[in-house]
Amino acid sequence: MSKALLTGSAAFLVALGLALNFAPVEAAAALGIEGASALPVQLLAGALVGVGLLNWYSREAVFGGIYGRPVGLANIVLFVVGSFALGRAALAGSSPALWVVFACYAAFAIGFAWIVFVGPRTSQTRPPQTGN
């Protein structure tokens, strides 16, 4: 599940980042952010592409326990903070595209929180006991 989550989030983040980078004014208008300057939108695009590439190249790595925790926590912060901001903007009555982006962010936030804090339980075996 973690490989699918990392691959899906990578594709989503890179696609969103490229759209914001190459058409910042148009993408901001489609999301209901009228009059936005291109500079902050393109800076956000760079961050999204960067995290997307991090997820893409981390998809084959071990993602359980302590080894994948930094990547997982970075994604949790990105998607939870983004969900709150997008949810607040969507409730203010912005465009339907904003609701779609909010839903994607919220789904990825839940998915990464599940993987990092609950984690896949593959085995319920106990460690070997040393005898008395």
From TrEMBL:
The keyword Membrane applies. Keywords: Membrane, Transmembrane, Transmembrane helix. The chain crosses the membrane at residues 37-58, 70-91, 97-117. It comes from the Bacteria. This is Uncharacterized protein. It comes from Brevundimonas alba.
